[in-house]
UniProtKB/TrEMBL annotation:
This is Unannotated protein. One of its GO terms (molecular function) is lyase activity. Residues 5-128 form the D-galactarate/Altronate dehydratase second domain. It holds the Pfam family GD_AH_second. One of its GO terms (biological process) is D-galacturonate catabolic process.
Amino acid sequence: MSMKGFDHGNRGIGIRNHQLILPSVVCSTRVSSRIAKEMDAITFAHQHGCGFIGNDVGRITDFFAALANHPNVSSTLIVGLGCETLQGNELADKLLTKNKSTNYLVTQESGGVQGTVNSGVAAATELKAKYPTPQVVLPRLHLGIDLSDDNIKVDEIVSAFTEVGVDITVAASHKNSGLNFSDLMEAGVHVILSFPDKNQPPSGFPLIPTINVASGSPLHMAISQDFDLSADSSPEEIMEKINSVVNGELTKVEAIGAGEIIAGREVRSV
């Protein structure tokens, strides 16, 4: 497999060149969305960063750090509010120890929403200019497999990819693909091959191209055009699709900008 990549320094070599606009708290997700739209960057909405306690503070901090340090990320701009539990500057300090292509801003110190958007676009533009991303050859692919459908057997697929030098991580702890995707993100996979539960539609993870394989369920048959591969796809066809996606072809969910990022929590709080 001949694979193109992007050299993201200490993050590693990725197969996508995404700038991440990371809201450190739920209150800054709308502002982050406006900045990301201006910059053609990746962001996501979440319910974290404020009003959470115990192990979740460290858990969410580590999860956000894993997002920002993922090999498919070129640079990260953290957007905070100023009064949250998880302070953006503290998260930025944690990230800067590994990757200098990180910056942060605070809404309460930027003159409000529009001021933060303006400052954010300027900061994100500066990050892109200061840390250009050279294209290189990806030396080794890390494939993640989401097994939300526990009836699927992937031994043949795993064997075929292992034989050609692909590293593989399988996530099967959840019936929800979104939670499995998060586990795979923290493992640092480049691309995800997803076998969603028969009652679950195709989905994706914004930072990581996700190839959805349909089952033969009535739901999947009814929306078959939303899947990248059919239930009867051979390992060779799957390998060909992965090679195309690694080299730039958009998956179905990438093409429409779909997908979500879910951070699991232990404590149910506000």
